[in-house]
Amino acid sequence: VDRNVTLPVCNDCTLQNVTLCGTYHTAAQTEFDALDRTFDRFSARRIIYRKGVRPSSLFVVQSGWAYAFRVLSSGRRHIIDFFVPGDSIGLHVDPTAPLPYSVQALTDLALCGFTLPNMIDQGLAHPSFCTFVRTRVSEYVRMLENQIVCVSRYPAMPRIACLIINLRERLRERGLADGDTFAFPLTQSHIGDALGLTAAHVNRTLGELRNEGILSLGQGELTILDLERLSELAKSVEG
Amino acid sequence: VDRNVTLPVCNDCTLQNVTLCGTYHTAAQTEFDALDRTFDRFSARRIIYRKGVRPSSLFVVQSGWAYAFRVLSSGRRHIIDFFVPGDSIGLHVDPTAPLPYSVQALTDLALCGFTLPNMIDQGLAHPSFCTFVRTRVSEYVRMLENQIVCVSRYPAMPRIACLIINLRERLRERGLADGDTFAFPLTQSHIGDALGLTAAHVNRTLGELRNEGILSLGQGELTILDLERLSELAKSVEG
DNA sequence: CGCTAACTTGATCGACGTCAATCGTGGTGG
DNA sequence: CCACCACGATTGACGTCGATCAAGTTAGCG
User: Fold this and answer.
1) DSSP conformational letter for A28
2) Residue of B69, B133, B148 to mutate for A, most A C-beta atoms under 10 A
3) A238 interface with B at CB cutoff 8 Å
4) Which of B133, B145, B237 to mutate to test binding with chain A, by most A CBs within 10 Å of its CB?
5) Helices A156-173, A188-195: crossing angle, 10 deg rounding
6) Closest by alpha carbon to B162, among B173, B174, B150, B144?
7) Does the structure show a pLDDT above 90 at B7?
8) Distance from C-alpha of B227 to C-alpha of B234, rounded to nearest angstrom
9) How many degrees, rounded to 5, is the angle at CA B216 between CA B215 and CA B221?
């Protein structure tokens, strides 16, 4: 963990319009400046939170990807959610309870950190912050509900299509996609562990998508070649 | 829908210690009494909320069961959650957004209703109410995350064991279980639609549980005969 | 005493897991 | 510069869980 003394300037942050901290900063700048703030770098594979600890900070991802996961009693890993730049780590959890999952850096990662629970408690006094939190949480709940439908009822192809469409959406919202091309650091194991599939089967399914000319994938970059058909595959999931 | 003029007296409510409204009532009785309150009865199978509408009331279940569901494009139903007495209907959703699911009465149902969003907005001024809401929501989030792991990684037996153990827990918290016997109005289709299984397969799996002497089930009542082994089957799920 | 919803059971089939081997590639040390 | 290694991608053979389809059977209900 590399903790810098010099904090980045929020006004220069390209994500300020989509982040929790940006919302707070806009709502009450002087109060925000008084917060206990850090800027941390984690290298890929580094564990950021370990399941069972009480979270001490809320992190906002500035760059890089991370993911929340559990290790099942069978030893297999289950990935609950991915974090991309702009996302908050630790927003949907009860800050007074032990974390129900671990969080690991998927790529090199830069995080803005804020001490809990002060940050939330103070922030909630501001309506715009409050709305932001409520919206994110109910968005996350809807996402989880969708995910349950997806993994419990649909075969591999729509699950994968759905994951890719969702990530595309999130990355585009944050200005991190160049048309239908974007960074995609997930391995096939990550995809499998997130969707309840084996890496072998993910491979076969991705192969099919490539053969059909629906997407191309390599060098940590994904390009959707035929959004029409990919959406078609994914949209059976929407209830 | 049968809307009574005479409201039940909260002080007589056997669930007041576990409900959202009970918490509010305790925190601020006169303010609570000024709320716009209703008491509604729905007969079994009646639709309470239809997906896509903006919820106008928050309901607290006084007696009976309900469930939240979506209809998939294939025409199949997916059950997202069950509501038992003491649960709030409409607590985890964004009250300003259209509902992401429909809600249907599973048995005859009695609900205490409160107009939204006033009830939430006013209530949040009280710390105990606020804590209650936050705890319920993060509980629900944890439950959804568990459910994703459950349905995406485990075969039918642990899924069913897990569902039964969870319902047992919730009913016991509310004093609605007589030892390990409790009301169980779900049909095998309900179970299947909640767990991503077909009714036929649920039937075979329940048959196994019965043959093994782990539980008995009939007449809308379930008895856990061997909690030890049932927990064993379910606990592979805990991450 | 029909009628319907729910439960039960059997036969067959397909998607996906498992296991195992191979290939490709980037990083590392000699 | 090259041998080596580890991790990820790829591919094949085979087995299994649960879906599907199709009968029955039971139970509640007017």
Assistant:
1) -
2) B148
3) yes
4) B145
5) 110
6) B150
7) no
8) 10
9) 120
Q: B138 — contact with chain A (CB < 8 Å)?
A: yes
pLDDT tens-digit map of B161-211? 999 999 999 999 999 999 999 999 999 999 999 999 999 999 999 999 999
From the list A83, A79, A82, A54, the residue with the least C-alpha distance to A69 is A79
Q: Give the pLDDT confidence score for residue A71 in this predicted structure.
A: 95
- Chain B residues in contact with A142 (beta carbon < 8 A): 100
Are B151 and A152 an interchain contact pair (Cβ–Cβ within 8 Å)?
yes
Contact B177, B169 (CB under 8 A): no
Inspect the interface and report whether the beta carbons of B152 and A152 lie closer than 8 Å: yes
Candidates B113, B54, B49; CA nearest to B81 is B49
Q: Which nucleotides of C are covered by protein (CB under 7 A)?
A: 5-11, 15-20
Q: What is the pLDDT of residues A156-187, one digit of tens each?
A: 999 999 999 999 999 999 999 999 999 999 99
Give the C-alpha separation, A60 to A189, whole Å.
Answer: 25
* Per-residue tens of pLDDT for chain A, all 239 residues: 666 667 889 999 999 999 999 999 999 999 999 999 999 999 999 999 999 999 999 999 999 999 999 999 999 999 999 999 999 999 998 888 999 999 999 999 999 999 988 898 899 889 999 999 989 999 999 999 999 999 999 999 999 999 999 999 999 999 999 999 999 999 999 999 999 999 999 999 999 999 999 999 988 999 999 999 999 999 877 75
The pLDDT of residue A121: 86
Question: Given a cut of 70, is residue B2 above it in pLDDT?
Answer: no
State, as a whole number of angstroms, the distance between the CA of A216 and the C1' of D3: 33
Asked whether the CA dihedral A27, A33, A36, A37 is positive or negative, the reply is positive
Q: What residues of B are in contact with residue A93 (Cβ under 8 Å)? A: 138, 141
B203 Cβ contacts chain C strand, under 7 Å: yes
Instruction: Give distance CA B65 / C1' D29 (Å).
Output: 22
Q: How far is the CA of B201 from the C1' of C10 (A)?
A: 13
Burial track B104-127 (b if 16+ CB lie within 10 A, e otherwise): bbbbebbbbbbebeebbebbeebe
* Nearest chain A residue (CA) to B74: A236
Single-letter amino acid, residue B188? Q
Question: 159-178 in B: which are within 8 Å (CB) of A?
Answer: none
Hey, what are A116's tokens? 């809990």
Q: Work out the number of other CB atoms within 10 angstroms of the CB of residue B40.
A: 17
pTM (2 d.p.): 0.93
Which one of B71, B137, B236 has the shortest CB-CB distance to A73? B236
Strand order in the sheet with A215-218: A177-178, A181-183, A221-224, A215-218
